[in-house]
Design goal:
Layout: E1 7-11, H1 16-27, E2 31-36, H2 39-49, E3 52-55, H3 61-75, E4 80-83, E5 94-95, E6 98-99, H4 102-128, E7 140-145, H5 149-152, H6 158-179, E8 183-190, H7 196-199, H8 203-211, H9 222-234, E9 242-245
Helix pairs in contact: 1-2, 1-9, 3-4, 4-6
Length: 254
């Protein structure tokens, strides 16, 4: 798809990979709406890209429906959706004080997995009503954010790995279902990316991640995620799969 003039929604658009993706898509000519719990952060990015900032809780149907209406009123129905909203709460399954609290597991799955599903189902419904863009019948593309932790989760990442594994597992069946409507579904599984969420982990975890990267020997940059997202939008043959973006990393146990 040619990005120019298309309406795009980016969740978690106020920072990190979401903000970088918003900037990249806007530079390519898309009209972007940035959804984020932190509307102030989203507004700051939106000013830079002449986009729309929308306060949104991806775990709430009411909030997503309201954000979608506001976005469509401003830019029309979405053709591009990039789900970057997510959280990371490190917990050992059983720590020094006993079993991990159940709340952290439920919250992680609610934001990372249920939130992604919630946005995907509601935006896909809006896309299905659109006219196709070309002879292939393309109507839109949804890109979800997974993680290499879904494949090689480290100690303390049981909840995070489970949530991102669910995102990966949704990719193919969603692409199969929505393909008949001209909607592609992809996922990107980043390794360590230098974002505010990664900065919240301990120095020990950060160093562990960096030490396992064959090349380049550094954390990824949000802009590298954004460039891949743009390529996925533009390459119509990319559908139903997950792309690792990790410099060849295979996570160690800790």
């Amino acid at each position: 798809m040619n990005v120019k003039g298309l309406s795009a929604i980016i969740t978690g658009g106020g920072s990190g990979m979401g903000a970088a993706t918003a900037k990249k898509l806007a530079a390519a000519g898309a009209r972007v709406a940035l959804w984020d719990m932190n509307e102030t952060a989203a507004a700051s990015v939106a000013r830079d890209v002449k986009g729309l900032a929308v306060a949104c809780d991806v775990t709430s149907e009411e909030s997503v429906r309201a954000a979608l209406k506001k976005s469509m009123d401003a830019h029309g129905e979405p053709r591009i959706v990039v789900n970057c909203a997510g959280i990371l709460i490190p917990r050992r399954l059983v720590g020094r004080e006993g079993p991990a609290d159940l709340d952290h597991f439920q919250k992680t799955l609610l934001v990372n997995l249920v939130g992604t599903y919630n946005v995907m189902r509601l935006t896909a419904a809006a896309m299905m009503a659109l006219e196709s863009l070309d002879a292939d019948g393309a109507r839109g593309v949804i890109i979800n954010t997974a993680s290499i932790a879904a494949y090689e989760g480290q100690i303390g990442q049981v909840a995070y790995s489970a949530s991102k594994g669910g995102v990966i597992a949704m990719t193919l069946p969603a692409a199969r279902e929505l393909g008949k409507h001209g909607i592609r579904v992809m996922a990107i599984a980043p390794g360590g990316v230098d974002t505010p969420m990664v900065s919240a982990v301990s120095d020990e975890v950060r160093q562990s991640i960096e030490s396992t990267i064959p090349f380049p020997h550094r954390l990824g940059k949000p802009e590298e995620f954004a460039r891949l997202a743009l390529h996925i939008v533009e390459n119509d043959l990319l559908n139903g799969t997950v792309i690792r973006l990790d410099g060849g990393t295979r996570l160690t146990a800790k």
